[in-house]
Automatic annotation (TrEMBL):
Protein's name in the database: histidine kinase
Main location: membrane
Assigned GO CC terms: membrane raft; plasma membrane
One of the record's GO molecular function terms: ATP binding
Organism of this sequence: Mangrovicoccus algicola
Topology class, membrane: Multi-pass membrane protein
Domain Histidine kinase span(s) in chain numbering: 41-265
Locations listed in the record: Cell membrane; Membrane raft
Alphabetical GO biological process terms: cellular response to phosphate starvation
Keyword vocabulary terms for this entry: ATP-binding, Cell membrane, Kinase, Membrane, Nucleotide-binding, Phosphoprotein, Transferase, Two-component regulatory system
């Protein structure tokens, strides 16, 4: 149950009395709190790597001056931290853009099979570096819907990147595309894209919170693999914009499957 927050409004009645009325401002207060939490999170996410970088610089200027091996090590770490900050700022911009457009239904004709093929092309090198085989398992038939091609590409890139980052020990990531005659929740015919990995998975109690900004099952692991904590929040907004839904299944030790359902009707 949520608390209701009221604002008291006092209006003089003109006869020396005061009329007090109450306005329900719960949603305004909640929005304000969410904005403050978000700013606090972003500040923290940026300050941590900046503090680390400053520490390395001071060490290189002081105790480790002239130590080439230390310099190489510290520079590599600083470069990794800077890379993560650049990705974070990029993800923040994407998030604010997709949030701004969420109410505008996209209208371009998009073919999903071609998008999945370009996801495989884009992420092929990252998959290879992680020792993951990236596969499409679907009939090579055209599947059309109305959407925003760049944003849909971003959805499948984010999900596939996660499958590679967190599921690489499973050795394989499979993208599949199927048709659903009528999705019971959307109440419409839909196209379904499954992105499945065979990695460590997670407890499903996390599923409903994964699309919150900066929510991570394992923060240490996310940071180690360069995660920003915003990938699934971006996915959620884009899927919402397409009036679709995201289904998440995972089993510890077996892997995860993220399914995107996009209505075609
Ligand atoms: P991040 O940048 O941390 O990867 P995301 O929003 O993309 O942020 O994902 C949120 C969290 O969900 C991750 O930190 C990770 O804990 C978990 N997660 C996402 N995808 C997977 C997956 N395929 N397998 C296991 N955990 C995952």
């Amino acid at each position: 149950a949520h608390e209701t927050i009221y604002r008291a409004i006092c209006t003089p009645t003109g006869e020396g009395g005061v009329l007090v009325s109450f306005q329900d401002v719960t949603s305004l207060e909640t929005a304000g709190q969410m904005r403050r939490d978000f700013v606090a999170n972003v500040s923290h996410e940026l300050r941590t790597p900046l503090t680390a970088i400053q520490g390395f610089i001071e060490t290189l200027q002081g105790p480790a001056r002239g130590d080439q091996a230390a310099a190489d090590r510290f520079l590599a770490t600083m470069s990794k931290e800077a890379g993560r900050m650049i990705r974070l700022v990029g993800d923040l911009l994407s998030l604010s853009q997709v949030e701004g457009e969420e109410r505008i239904r996209p209208t371009e004709r998009v073919e999903l099979h071609a998008i999945l093929k370009s996801v495989i092309r884009t992420l092929g090198p990252a998959a290879e570096a992680a020792g993951v085989e990236l596969l499409i398992e679907t009939a090579a038939e055209e599947r059309w819907l109305l959407g925003d091609p760049d944003q849909l590409m971003q959805v499948f890139v984010n999900l596939t990147e996660n499958a590679i980052k967190y599921g690489h020990d499973g050795g394989r990531v499979i993208l599949s595309l199927s048709e659903v005659a009528r999705d019971p929740i959307l109440g419409l015919p839909a196209l379904q894209v499954d992105i499945r990995d065979f990695g460590q998975g997670f407890d499903e109690m996390h599923s409903h919170r994964l699309t919150e900004r900066f929510y991570r099952v394992d923060s240490h692991r996310s940071r180690a693999v360069g995660g920003t904590g915003l990938g699934l929040a971006i996915v959620k907004h884009i899927v919402n914009r397409h009036k679709g839904r995201l289904k998440i299944h995972s089993e510890i030790g077996k892997g995860s499957c993220f399914s995107v359902l996009l209505p075609t009707g």
